[in-house]
Design brief:
Number of strands: 11
Structural class: alpha+beta
Radius of gyration: 19 Å
Distance between the termini: 52 Å
Largest sheet: 4 strands, antiparallel
Helix content: 40-55%
Strand content: 15-25%
Order of helices and strands: HHEEEEEEHEEHHHEHHEEH
Number of helices: 9
Amino acid sequence: MEASDRRWIAGHPVFESLPAGDLDMLLEAAVVHDLPADAVLFGQGDRPEFLHVLIDGRVGLTARGMDEKEVVVEFMEPGEAFILAAVLTDAPYLMAARTLPPSRVLLIPAKALREHVSTNAKLAAGMLASLSRHYRMLVRQIKDLKLHSATERLGCYLLVLAAQAATKPDGTVTVTLPVEKALLATRLGTTPENLSRAFANLRPSGVRTLGGTVTISDLQKLREACAMAPPIPD
């Protein structure tokens, strides 16, 4: 493991409270992999062998139903640890994971992690905080699917991307979609056709697209479009 990776891990919210000696013990058998795009990290139903922590790149968590149709459940961004619940309970993964662009991933052996969590209160607290963040993320997704239209869900997603981008002097923001639109549609719980309609519906709110590039000319108008629309009736 490179020294720069060790420093990055030491500053991670889950591990930053650990004394250096405890962190060294936890990382004793850990490895860092540089992976190409579309590399499979684990499959749905596999038993967890490692806790994965994304250092750089992007990972898609996907699931398949009885019809073998694959949907994207969530995108993992740098700094995310996944899938912690399966690792801590030694339960089969409910999702698969694969890299989207080339990515750098830390792998911590699951068994060693469980042993350290059982004896290290600071590490256990970090794990609990991470689980809590992912639980809240899951609740937000469920609320979005039940309460908002595809257009509203897309608008809210674009606002999240915009919050991470620079605003130009004229007030516009340009963002790049992290994946192709077909994958994004499954992440937002819709179809590619409905996603195209959703982009069209957002044009009056200042949203323009060119391939995977989206320009938002009026953030406030987009916020209002997302916030003012009434919930979908049951």
